[in-house]
Amino acid sequence: GQTPFTCPKDEPPMFFTACEGDGDNPCRYDPVACTGLDTVFWTIQCNCNSNSGSLDDPFIMVCNWFDCPPPPQPLENFNNFFCPPSAQTGDKCNGGMPGSGDIQVCNYEPSGCVGRTDDGVFQKTCTCKENSGNRIFDCVTAGPPDCSPKPSFSCFSGDSLVEVKDAGFVAMRDIQIGDLVRTDTTSNSGKFEPIYSFGHYAPDLKDANMLRIHAADPNDPSTTASIEISPDHLMAIKGQGYVPASTVKVGDTVIHFTEDGGRNDVSKRVIDIEDIKAAGVFAPFTPSGTIIVNGFLASCFITLQPGQSHLFSIASFHSLAHAFELPHRLVCYYLSSCSDESYNTAGISSWVAKPLELVRWLWRV
Hints:
Largest sheet: 4 strands, antiparallel
Order of helices and strands: EEEEEEEEEEEEEEEEEEEEEEEEHHH
Distance between the termini: 21 Å
Structural class: mainly beta
Shape: elongated
């Protein structure tokens, strides 16, 4: 449950700088173009590593410096072709065999996003092409990479099932605002409540990172059930309340409902957890802030601090989010309907996007 580390954006950190997090994603700096490589090469890479034995700084930054690898042997058909330090469209290419039809690519202006594990991009690419018996460069310029934060997908997969009143079990991708779905109350069988909004609605999203959590009665393996849920989404664990799915462990007892609506929160225990890629992401909101998905009791909300279920051990993020949602719930459930709500390009409801951005900004401050 370490807080994910955020890479310093402007320049590499000083060696042995204190940091927080698990260091899974390296911080990379100073991208360069290396002769013979068709991808960006990063000359500095830093990781947030455990500093065993230190109570003051349990995690520190450790950086390594790298040089371009030796260039490969020149291509036989290019007579010792090499990329010049710079090139423009129309410049003559050195080497090559006129009439061979072969081409060679030179990359310039490398760039990338700190803290990302993608390869980065070359903002300028010049291709050596044959032109009227000569070889000249044809250059194409692209913009810098988009380094804006990638949206986090905190929700359920499109294949997840919810029980809809008078319709039975329906895939999450097929439910709509106004549908009555089974939720949790103090009664053992739960009750049906309307979906008044989708906090997240992205039916066309592919390859969303999620967890598939399997649970079963240890004495009866045939009772296995599973839920596909994003790591930051909150789900109910007996004795712990609503916790981020990322913190669920094998052996935890889930609160599970059988197909007839009966509650079974004693024998179903987590037996396996796997990382998956899911298609379609959905986060329906109900008045109680709860929903039963594939039989598992879950919250409609997410944690605002990865790996944590409570704010300073005082109030649960589930309760805080439910209270925070009151204005939205008041308008779209108690006073009217918001069946025509809109979503941004990431699929976040317009009711949720700006307030969530504000809350996360305040949290960082």
